[in-house]
Amino acid sequence: MERFELNILGCGSATCTRRHMPSCQVLNVRDRLLMIDCGEGAQLQLRRLRLKPSRLSHIFLSHMHGDHVFGLPGLVSTLALLHCDGTVVVHTFAEAAAALRVFIDTFCYRLDLNLRFNIISPEGGETVLDEPGYTVSTFKLYHRVPCVGFLVREKPKLRHINGEMACFHGVPTYAMQALREGADWVAPDGRVIPNGWLTTDADAAVSYAYCSDTAYDRRVARAVEGVDWLYHEATYGDDAAPKAAPRGHSTARQAAMVAREAGVKRLIIGHYSSQYDDETPLLAQAREVFPDTILANEGLRLNLQYPSTE
Asked: Which pLDDT score, from 0 to 100, does residue 1 have?
């Protein structure tokens, strides 16, 4: 089974606390690391979670607030000190790329790394990465500044060969790929052996959506409809609900409303306000609306192939 794993490096909001790091996540997709947002301390957290910096290939930035991007220069500097010499692509808006390029060129000037910027639209709605096994696309979020979310979808997987039946019917090695893709086998004597006799069902393709800073909006629910896993910011609890919309944020209850309206399988909430020393009330409020909710926390590692696994 191909790896599809989520690692939480940071799930706090703008103000630093002793309990949470700023926003940063890493998806391990088939042993390639995709970072989503890059708050301060990202390079330290990457090493604490024993994620190999050399496997980092893409960084996706949701918007230009410091708690989501200030870790990038430090991370690039660390990659330089480790003599990482691969290619890392930063997906961000044009204005952000210009600002970050100046900073990185000033402080990280000895790079073996091939650092590239891919300019994305703040309006969302585009595929920004298309790999053989998965895609990454964007959708619009509703914050105080231009902001997008990211949707990672595995492509349909190949069927599994039933080795015993394939051997019994004399299927040659060269025909196995066609069987995995769903073709029947035509034997040398003209007999058609149905694919269903020779293979078993493919593993389900998995999807993950990341909703960074955003006010509650039903358009977000439509954008992430039916995903297996949804990460949605939950900056405030019911006690601070009046602060949420004016600041472009959501409450835990509103995050759960998006999950329910979108029909997702699992919800992860994070981006907690520094005013909370305990997030369990936020979890309780979310579960009143969407029971299958868990709290993000630094060091949390989830195998996304199993939507029912904590």
From this structure: 57
